[in-house]
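Hi support team,

I'm filing this because I wasn't sure whether my run with zinc ion finished correctly. The job status page said complete, but I'd like someone to confirm that the output block is well-formed before I use it downstream. Pasting the exact inputs I used:
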Amino acid sequence: MIIIKGGALVCPDGLRRGDIALDGGTIAHIAAHIEPAPGDTVEDASGCWVFPGFIDAHTHLQCWTGMDWTADSFETGARAAACGGTTTIVDYATADRGVTMDEALDEWHRRADGTCTANYGFHMAIAEWGPDSAAQMRRMRDAGVSSFKTYLAYDHLKLTDAETLQCLECVRDLDAVLCVHCENGDVVNELQHEVLAAGITGPEGHPLSRPAEAEADAVSRLLYLANIAGAKVNVVHLSTKLGLEVIRAARTRGQQGIFVETCPQYLTLDDTRYLEAGEDGFAGAKYVMSPPLRKPADIAALRDAVRAGEVDSIATDHCSFNLHGQKDRGVGDFTKIPNGGPGIEHRPAVMATTFEGELGPMELMRLMSEGPARVFGMWPRKGRLAEGADADICVWDPSARWTISAATQQQAVDYTPYEGMEAHGSAHLVYVNGVLAARDGAPTGEKPGTYVRRS
Ligand SMILES: [Zn+2]
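And here is everything the job wrote out:
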């Protein structure tokens, strides 16, 4: 057995000081004092917070966009996740047009199986709707996929409102949850043309073409459609105060089954980043992601919502592309910059640092562990520090001080949006299925991650 001694245990009902014993892939015992037997491995966690391993329920690893592969594979991305304290990811498998969900799920398993340091589940993104889609979704549910995704933007991915409604009815019947990318795609297409025609071609054109109203409009439409269908939805990567106000209004009306996700970048970075020049005059492209970074007032509103418990989970939307060789292809036309940024490794550190004094270990645990476990059908096996739960553990040292930098990161990409941030706290020991996967930010070389069937 592995015995982790003397930490502050972040349990579902509050903090406890004590010891925790891992036996194989399970938390065997939690007590004020556990006496090690001969042969046991003992780790000292005094001064540390012992979390149920963090869950990142929004990643895109080893993903082909039609132009590029993401910089991170399942191997590098899941390893970086574990080094930062994340023990489970839920990645977006995508059934592109002409591909069945069954084929997509098989393909994502081929990419991930056997290579992952952290555990992994899959959402299924649906890019077209047809007479067989409902049957395919039922088979996905049987295969442990309890969440789906549709888009209200991107011409090659988006469903019509009628198709979205049919999909929501199916999600309701399967007791699943639909994650939706909420931007009005027609409006974005039009504004991209207008911004380019006005001669704005650099990264600063990106946020101009994707205004807050485009998000709020799509969130509003989605929530009304979900209410008609009686389905549960997860608004992914919420980025605006306007969108938040739409959600508050629906919740005030009594609509059930609305889950909200946001990401560290929308809680910390504003749209002045698009003006960053850097060495080659193009550094603003690092922040080209959709939705874009917003105004300080949006950041303040979302941070208020996080503190008030209105946000169910913090995920990264990790979708990494190199600045050099990938994003720089969009020099002279911001619409050609691959959309996405890295974050899978640094989410716990960025959250703990930028909310220091505002969120304690219980709140961090709810946002990054229990919350996503509950929304995505992994509770109570995951997201819970309790006897019988999975031995996914992050021993967090809140006194550690270090600097986030691309030079020292595990993520296989040539930058980080958080370059130079002094982080307060770091993942000291990370166990995945009871196996030590990372120590002090470095991988042990083990690949204990397994597929997570969700219910
Ligand atoms: Zn995404």
